[in-house]
Amino acid sequence: MLRPVFACWLACAAALAAAEKPILPPLPDYRAPRAATPPVIDGEIDEAVWGAAPAAGDFVFTWYQAGRKEQTRAKLLWDDECLYLAARCDDAHITARHTERDGRIPEDDCIEIMLAPNPATPRVYFNIEVNVIGGILDNFRPNGPDRPRAPKWDAEGVRVAGKWTGTLNDDSDTDRHWQVEVAIPWRNFAAVGAAVPPPPGTVLRMNLNRHGGKTNPQYSQWAQADTPKPSFHTPDRFGRLTLAPETAGGGR
To answer: What is the pLDDT of residue 218?
Structure first.
């Protein structure tokens, strides 16, 4: 008589545990077109080549608690030299103070790309974080999110430019948005074994994250993580980035 009761208890416990786990959406996919001509990295994202690139879709607020959800619109392009990112970020109170390399960029309103450039090693990834005034923080994670972390690593040749509508570091008024344009040379990822340049059709793993700022700080991201507390270092939940062979037009 005990065995059926025990089996029922186990089944109920398993059902309860499953019910407590959040139901996560499917991992997103993005097809980045090949740039016919490289975008000019000047913080303006009105070039025809950006207009021909699809939007990545709304960011999700994985650990939302309170406040206005300020949305981000991101696009990517690629060519034989670089991966390009453009992002426009709604923000009523823009904070940007730090420009020193690997400084306190996370205290500012910032956006981050996490990229696993070798499809064979999806837990080996890089993260590059930028703010609107050109501050950069970057790291290499050869062991996934676990320690030990790699020695200090600085990406070479990264270019960042930003623009904003509003006033920086002044919460007495209401701002509208800030935007950044970033160029990341592929050569920075050669050590992990990915082809440089990657051929058309390559599928990488990627996430885009946004956080920081003094007023109404929010954690938002392109691919939703699965941790109960804020943590962007979840490579198993990175979305897919396909380097499409289709070409996006150039010129303004």
So the answer is: 92
Q: What total of structural domains would you count in the chain?
A: 1
> What is the domain-level CATH number for residue 151?
2.60.40.1190
Question: Pick from 38, 158, 163: which is nearest to 101 by CA?
Answer: 158
Q: Which residues contact 248 (CB under 8 A, 6 or more apart)?
A: 33, 34, 35, 36, 48, 49, 50, 52, 53, 77
Pairing of strands 239-248, 29-35: parallel
- Higher pLDDT residue, 143 or 16? 143
Sort 102 into a burial class: Cβ within 10 Å, 0-12 / 13-18 / 19+. middle
In a domain, 12, yes or no: no
Rounded CA separation 70/76 (Å): 20
Percent above pLDDT 90 for the chain: 81
Copy the structure tokens of residue 109. 């309103």
**Host domain of residue 46:** 37-245
210, 90 Cβ separation under 8 angstroms: no
What DSSP line would sit under 200-223, residue for residue? TT-EEEEEEEEE--SSS---EESS
The whole-model pTM stands at 0.90
Cα→Cα distances 31→9, 13, 19, 136, Å: 47, 42, 34, 25
Both tokens of 85, joined, read 């990112």
Closest CA to 73 of 104, 45, 106, 105: 45
Distance CA 148, CA 132 (A): 30
Across the strands, what pairs with 31? 242
The total number of residues shown for the chain amounts to 252
